[in-house]
Specification:
By secondary structure, the chain is mainly α. The chain contains nine helices and five strands; from the N terminus they run βαβαβαββαααααα. The chain folds into two domains: 7-118, Response regulator (Rossmann fold, 3-Layer(aba) Sandwich), CATH 3.40.50; 123-174, no CATH class. A hairpin with a 6-residue loop joins strand 4 and strand 5 (82-83). The termini are far apart. Mean pLDDT is 76; it is low at 75-80.
């Protein structure tokens, strides 16, 4: 039986951000392919692998996101067939997040645009929701801190609305402290 999950191609030259997006999207049930620049992404698309959505950084070396999008065919069907109109990965994710299955073709593109106008969802909402789900699923807050690029664990703690006590308990579970109680660095 073939894997029928939608495939998202993540194109970004910053490996930390790209890896974090891959982990987040895989955690949400997507198949994910990645490339470090537009030229690699074009090679991937030309290989015939199906792609349902793209997340593309616009400022990259070798081939930037704008040049990539200008040259790339946009794929959107389950089997990766050519789509004559551009629907960005963000638009696809917004539709999927609200339970809409993106449609193809000219009428489908019009329908997609109508649904998108009704949706109040921003990139930061998706980032925050993904981080909260990772925490709820038991991912160590220090890993989430690295994925989000936060300078301190306190910044991640505030971002996720985690209390000092919840942070202490979580760190005790994930860190073998040999019976020593943990003390918060913030002095609280």
């Amino acid at each position: 039986m073939s894997d029928r999950r939608p495939t998202i191609l993540v194109v970004d030259d910053h490996s930390d951000l790209r890896d974090a997006l891959v982990v987040l999207l895989e955690h949400e049930g997507y198949r994910v392919a990645d490339a470090s620049n537009g030229a690699e992404a074009l090679d991937y698309l030309r290989s015939g692998a199906p792609v349902n959505a793209l997340i593309v950084d616009l400022d990259m070396p070798v081939m930037n996101g704008w040049d990539f999008l200008a040259e790339a065919y946009v794929f959107g069907s389950e089997n990766g067939t050519y789509q004559p109109n551009i629907q960005t990965g963000w638009e696809t994710l917004r539709l999927l997040a609200y339970g809409y299955e993106p449609r193809t073709g000219k009428k489908g593109a019009e329908w997609n645009r109508e649904q998108l106008q009704r949706i109040d969802l921003h990139w930061h909402d998706l980032r925050h929701e993904g981080a909260c789900r990772l925490l709820a699923d038991g991912v160590d807050i220090r890993m989430i801190q690295l994925m989000l690029g936060h300078a301190s664990i306190q910044q991640t703690q505030r971002y996720l609305n985690v209390t000092d006590e919840e942070l202490r308990r979580g760190l005790e579970v994930s860190w073998n402290n040999k019976g020593r109680p943990l003390r918060l660095a913030s002095g609280a």
